[in-house]
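Help wanted!
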Amino acid sequence: MPHVPRGYAPTFGEPPEKPAAAGGEEKRPARQRLGLGVISPRTYQPDPDAVVKSLFGKEVEADGDTGELVYTNRP
Amino acid sequence: MATPESWCTPTAPDDPPAPPRQVIPDLISNLCVKGWRPIMLTGLLRDLLVTHFQPRLIEDTDLRDLVWRENAGETKILIESVHRWRGELVGFRPAILLKRNAYRNLRVGIGDRAGTDGRGMHRYSTFWVGSHTVFCLHESGAGVEILATEVQRELTEFAPEVRKALGLKKWSVTEVGEIAEVEEARESFIVPITVGWAYEQNWTLERESPKLRRVSLTALLDM
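Answered by r_m:
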């Protein structure tokens, strides 16, 4: 049986590093490094100009006098 | 100071005249009376999806068990607007959440004029353009991709009939966003689907006083 000096049991010394927290915290940064973004339904808004162009096939812009949306002549 | 006897009549005042209806031919009666409103579009989207997620209607075989039920204990998928709070279904996955985005006015005529009716009253018309976002949520990335594709295909394929039957000027899926994690619940994946729409608002302004029949020049001649 090997001799273990008193006061130097394996439980002594510098504590080991803390284990990873439960809940998959360590996996999240790896996924984000691969390019997975984060979306919040509270703040997500599509581009309104892109929606209008997709629906009507052409862009709109604010009228200089009234500020209302009107079609542009740009294709 | 004395007031005439007829100053205040004891009978109840007459009801105000009923507002004129927006008559859109071949439409269901509720739309004919009220015209399109954003909350009705939210309901339309929810009804379309609730009706689709039923047995034998789901297209993708991987989703065949996602049958929607009103009862929280029986449903396999949550389909709801973001502003309807159902405490028993918080965190329920898979889920489809509906959110109306901002909508804007699009002018289609000078001064919104759209001609005159048979009585000589001016008719007006303008377009309102906006969108809804359909958030598809699932616990796995592949699952949310399959779910989002199912929703996109359903909405795209029935868009022509929706436009025709419900009198919408525009109604189509304009964009399917990238897959991402949900900020509020990192264990869920999300794909946003944007459904753009446009409807027409038309109205007639009726004058309370009769039109000016002639212009008196007497005052000018006396000067």
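OP: Thanks! One thing I noticed: The first strand of chain B starts at residue 78 and ends at 81.
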